[in-house]
C-alpha cells in the first residue's frame, strides 16, 4: 500500500494499492550536448504540462541517472541507436497534491511594473 497522506493530518490519511503495471518512460536525446540538455528540459516541461492537462500525475525518478552505468543501461545496448537518458518519469493517476506556494503579481513586480528586488521574495511560505 502507498500512503498518500503521510505529511497530513491523521484524519485525512488515504491509502491506495500500488498499480500492478505502472507506466514508466525514459526521456532521452540522440546526443548529450548542452543543446540536448536544453531540449530535454523543454520536452520535460511539455510532457508535464500535457500530463497535468489530462489529469495524469507524474513522478520524476532521477536517482538512476546519477550513476553513469545505470544511465547507460537505460538507453544503452538494447536500442537500435544510441540515446542519452535525461529523466525517468512514472505516470499514473492519484489524488491531487497540495498547490505550490506562489507569489502574487503585485509581490513580484514593483510599482513601476518592473521585477522587484530579490529580497522581496523571502515572503514565500
How would you describe this protein?
- The structure is a single chain.
- By secondary structure, the chain is an alpha+beta fold.
- The chain has a domain at 22-96: NADH Oxidase, CATH 3.40.109.10.
- Helix content is 26%, strand content 19%.
- It is built from 3 helices and 5 strands; from the N terminus they run βββαβαβα.
- Strands 3-5-4 form a 3-stranded antiparallel β-sheet, sandwiched between helices. Strands 1-2 form a two-stranded antiparallel sheet.
- It starts with a strand and ends in a 17-residue tail after the last helix.
Kindly report the oligomeric state of this protein. single chain
CATH structural class of the domain at 22-96: Alpha Beta
Poorly predicted runs: none
Estimated helix fraction? 25-40%
> Strand order across the biggest sheet?
3-5-4
What's the tally of helices? 3
Task: State the secondary-structure class.
Answer: alpha+beta
Shape type: flat
One letter per element, helices H and strands E, the order comes to EEEHEHEH
Q: What would the average pLDDT be, to the nearest integer?
A: 78
Number of strands: 5
Major sheet characteristics: 3 strands, antiparallel
Strand content: 15-25%
What tags apply to this protein structure?
single chain, 125 residues, alpha+beta, NADH Oxidase, two-stranded antiparallel sheet, 5 strands, flat
Record the SSE blueprint.
Layout lengths: L1 E2 L11 E2 L6 E7 L4 H20 L3 E4 L7 H8 L8 E9 L12 H4 L17
Antiparallel strand pairs: 1-2, 3-5, 4-5
